[in-house]
Amino acid sequence: MNSKEAAEKIREMFPEEVREIREYNSQTSVIVKRDRIKDIIRYLHSDPLLNFDLLKDLCGVDYSGKKETRFEVVYHLYSLEYRSLLRIRAEVPEDDCSIDSVVDIFAGANWPERECYDLLGVVFKGHPDLRRILLPEDWEGHPLRKDYPLQSDLGEKEWKGYLDVIELAKKNMEFETK
Fold first, then answer.
1. % of the chain at pLDDT higher than 90
2. What is the DSSP letter of 88?
3. Least C-beta-crowded within 10 Å: which of 44, 81, 158, 174?
4. Is residue 14 part of a domain?
5. 119: left (phi over 0), alpha (psi -120 to 50) or beta
6. End-to-end Cα spacing for the chain
7. Distance of CA 157 to the CA centre of its chain
8. Strand locations in 2-100, DSSP E?
């Protein structure tokens, strides 16, 4: 079954959840509400007619100021049997920035969900170990958000670990050779 047919199957099974199906450059995207994302992913994975058995990627997108719903969590699913790629885009509102985890369906979603949490602040409900993966635990904020400051001179808001490294570098300058 190709990705267009799979998208239509999703619309048949979850008519209230599917917002839109888009086709661009031979790629199919299904934009869905987040409330039943786990059911949708499980259906795509478990139905033998679809058999999307590989989660190629999971990432988050911040559409601040461009779309009504600020965030999306994007799932790239692949069916090895049918050689078909399908993109599922789940809308996540800013005021309740959370979505169900799919780690129990795809174990490989563990670290990408943690990365999305770490860098965008999307909370994955039911994740077995949701904590930062790229940044230190005491880091404040989420660097991939569009409203995250771009400058490193944050004064008292600067990460203490960064300030410690700068101070150590200044102290060690006396040992540099010219």
1. 78
2. E
3. 174
4. yes
5. alpha
6. 67
7. 26
8. 18-24, 27-33, 54-62, 71-79, 84-92, 98-100
Number of domains present in the structure of the chain: 1
**In a domain? residue 87:** yes
Letter for the amino acid at 164? Answer: D
Distance of CA 174 to the CA centre of its chain: 45
DSSP E strand stretches across the chain: 18-24, 27-33, 54-62, 71-79, 84-92, 98-100, 123-125
> pLDDT for 100-154, tens place per residue?
999 999 999 999 999 999 999 999 999 999 999 999 888 888 999 998 877 666 6
Separation between Cα atoms, residue 13 and residue 7, nearest integer Å: 10
What pLDDT was estimated at residue 132?
Answer: 95
Q: How buried is 125 (Cβ within 10 angstroms: 0-12 exposed, 13-18 middle, 19+ buried)? A: exposed
Closest CA to 63 of 87, 38, 89: 89
Q: What residues make up the domain containing 10? A: 3-138
- How would you list the strands of the sheet with 54-62, edge to edge? 18-24, 27-33, 84-92, 71-79, 54-62
Q: Is 152 part of any domain?
A: no
Helix (H, G, I), strand (E, B) or coil at 29: strand
- Is the residue at 146 inside a domain? no
pTM comes to: 0.85
Hey, what are 15's tokens?
Answer: 């008519």
Give the domain CATH number at 11. Answer: 3.30.460.80
